[in-house]
Design brief:
heterodimer, A: 186 residues, alpha+beta, Immunoglobulin-like, four-stranded antiparallel sheet, 8 strands, 40% helix, elongated, B: alpha/beta, Glutaredoxin, five-stranded mixed sheet, 5 helices, 7 strands, 21% strand, globular
């Protein structure tokens, strides 16, 4: 008797559980959709936060440059290479008004980037308005893999506003020698 | 017993913190540099980003360096294929002596010449040898001053742990 009673209670519970299942299934898709939405929202928030951080980083970088190198005293020096068959660049050293300010060693990868058209900012300086002398010394391998060391000098005038100077290495096909020229960007 | 363990733990962590602090560079981004190497190429540290890099400062007049270098070379030969690089930085004024020693010891890792001592100043080298281990992100993780037999096991453990990161 007790056993029968127990069986009927268990059967009742099973029926009740079975009846509750469809209801749960009906609720589940809503919960899933809600959590998906939440997840999407979170993803968007993270993306926008990332963008804000990148923007802030860029602004800080520009601000730092403006502070360290104010536009009216800023002078930037760039190195570029055109062709480069007669010269394998090893290093560039810069002297401004007789004082060494930069000495940059180029790895094969960096020299390769220059050959592919890259331009390298080798130095930034703050200079007073007026006349200055720039001496650039290039070392590397010249024709027939000989050690090569050449200098180029430019007397330039620093006015108001930023100034950009390009140290260009080109090939002089007629002489089969490299050529080193310093140009002022207008 | 618990208090004893706790005290021991505190002591160990205090010691670890002080050894990190004394190195100064540990935890900081490794200062970038480029130097001429024994092969004639210029090598730049930042071009090894993504690899675990060991920088070993040494000199020909330093006895422990001579002892340590073949062991470092073993480490280099073993782990080079899985993203480990070793740059030996020689600080002698005359690089020909360094070349002679490299040939004598038969080391295969690249040796760079810091005759102007610019890089050793950058890494605050005030003992010989100094071994700096840089992780894949380009941060200094360990700085070892000097060399005593057994240090190579420490290097091995640290390099392996960083390679796994």
């Amino acid at each position: 008797m007790t056993r029968q009673l127990l069986m009927s209670v268990v059967a009742g519970l099973v029926l009740a559980f079975a009846a509750s299942l469809p209801a749960q299934e009906a609720v589940a898709p809503d919960a899933d959709a809600a959590s998906r939405d939440q997840f999407r929202q979170l993803d968007q928030d993270v993306q926008s936060l990332k963008k804000e951080v990148l923007d802030l980083n860029r602004d800080l970088f520009l601000l730092e440059e403006e502070l360290l190198f104010p536009a009216n005293s800023q002078v930037a020096f760039f190195v570029s290479m055109d062709v480069g068959e007669y010269f394998k660049l090893d290093s560039v050293s810069l002297k401004i008004d007789g004082k060494e300010v930069a000495n940059y060693l180029y790895t094969d990868r960096e020299a390769g980037s220059l050959l592919r058209g890259g331009v390298h900012r080798v130095h930034m300086a703050n200079l007073k308005t007026g006349g200055h002398e720039l001496v650039a010394i290039f070392t590397g391998q010249g024709p027939q893999s000989r050690e090569y060391r050449r200098g180029a000098t430019l007397n330039f005038s620093k006015g108001i506003g930023a100034k950009y100077l390009e140290l260009e290495i080109t090939d002089r096909v007629k002489k089969q020698q490299p050529e080193f020229v310093i140009k002022e960007w207008e | 017993m618990k208090i004893r363990n706790l005290l021991a733990g505190l002591l160990v962590s205090a010691f670890a913190a002080s050894s990190l602090a004394s190195s100064g560079l540990a935890g900081q981004p490794a200062p970038d540099f480029a130097l001429k190497s024994s092969t004639g190429q210029n090598l730049r540290l930042s071009e090894y980003r993504g690899d675990v890099v060991m920088i070993n400062f040494w000199a020909t007049w330093c006895g422990p360096c001579r002892q340590e270098m073949p062991l470092l070379d073993e480490l280099y030969s073993r782990y080079q294929r899985v993203g480990f690089n070793l740059l030996g930085v020689n600080i002698d004024d005359d690089s020909s002596r360094a070349m002679a020693m490299i040939n004598e010891l038969g080391v295969s890792f690249p040796v760079l010449f810091d005759a102007r001592k610019e890089v050793s100043r950058l890494y605050e080298v005030d003992a010989m040898p100094v071994t700096v281990i840089v992780d894949r992100e380009g941060n200094v993780r360990y700085v070892h001053q000097g060399y005593k037999p057994g240090y190579e096991q420490k290097y091995l453990d640290q390099v392996r742990a960083l390679l796994r990161e």
